[in-house]
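WARN  no MSA supplied for this record, continuing single-sequence
INFO  ligand: adenosine monophosphate
INFO  echoing inputs
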Amino acid sequence: MKLYNTLTNKKEEFVPVNPGKVGIYVCGPTVYNFIHIGNARPMVVFDTVRRYFEYKGYDVNYVSNFTDVDDKIIKEAIKEGVDSSVISERYIKECKKDMEGLNVLEATTHPKATEEIDGMIAMISQLIDKGYAYEKNGTVYYRTRKFEHYGQLSNKNLDDMQAGARIAVSDEKEDSMDFVLWKPKKEGEPSWPSPWGEGRPGWHIECSVMSKKYIGDTIDIHAGGEDLIFPHHENEIAQSEACNDEKFAKYWMHNAFLNIDGEKMSKSAGNFFTVREISEKYDLQVIRFFMLSAHYRSPLNFADTLVEASKNGLDRILTAVDRLRDLLATAPEGEMTEADQKNKEEVDALVKKFEDSMDDDFNTADAIAAIFELVKLSNVTAPEGSKAYVQYVYDTITKLCDVLGIITEKKEELLDADVEALIEERQQARKAKNFARADEIRDQLAAQGIILEDTRAGVKWRRA
Ligand code: AMP
Ligand code: ZN
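INFO  complex generated
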């Protein structure tokens, strides 16, 4: 299995720290608002990486944090006149809902920064003791020049950076490239006691602390979007390696951006769609499939035409799976025939193609191409096949789809929930005397074969 390591700028064979195990740490979102679909890209990509490791038999420890103390959260809290934990808890909940819609598996651990403050204080203290950090007026800075390898991940050199920096040299800092580990409390902000006074941590320290606590001094894979390479990941390396005297991460994986009209989707640029608003237009399964249709290191442009193409592609796969399900009921019982055996060899060759693609730096685009070939083969061969063969093809396609997080089960339950939500909306519309909307919903349900009956016990529904 090969993966591209940002640290060495080449594809490398994956060799875990501990045989059979993989520790993956993915930098998670800052929870001050709904996540946008750009934020969803690393979630989907690295969830797929995790699923593939599990498919290969690895025991995966997947850790992804929530940054729940930050300027943006505090700003939002002040705007709403609530405690900043109200904002962060609300958006953690919403983010989890979006992740569920995208079929992103729960992380083994989802640590929150505010619950790891003690660990951060301990690591900062160690860095001070070792001469890698210093305190000035309640702020603790990391002494970047002391860390020999600073710049190794981003291929930057401190002197060049300093020459190009537009940042004013603060009086406090020994060097303009030093970064904050701890900052003093400002009025109205959340704060914790520390040896340097009341305050709160800088952003970078949380990931060094959480990855050490939940995975170990050396983690197998550290991942995130490519905008995190500098300074965030560079600073994490400086903190962790100075503190632990061990290599921090063996492999660094970074996804490219999700763009709109060639520009990075971001909250600050205002060119974003939240996952929530997109979910009203598309099934989030389509969005997941769309994200995997490109290699994770290639930029991906978000455009309706491309998402529509993904929708059609996904439909083709799901229709084939449905057909196989029907065939399972009608195919002749018994062993595979000679023709089935020959077809099975072709199926196995396509599984190999899928695995080879995934083994090659998680090339999901080629892996999906292999699934499409499998679908084509299935459509031609399964109607003529024995039950054993149909079952084999069905199991194979559904297993590969599962690696990509594509749900192939019938959506009866989801549909039921949708129906119920519409019925509820219709009731509300009637209460509000919005009969046009109530009728519209009845018609919409009828078009989908859902029949409503108004009874004294409430609205009952059944499928036609
Ligand atoms: P943030 O909340 O901005 O720290 O972002 C959370 C994660 O989303 C990080 O891994 C970012 O690198 C990633 N990310 C943010 N915007 C995009 C984008 N447009 N495309 C891909 N990844 C992104
Ligand atoms: Zn991080």
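The longest helix spans residues 304-330.
INFO  checksum written, moving to next record
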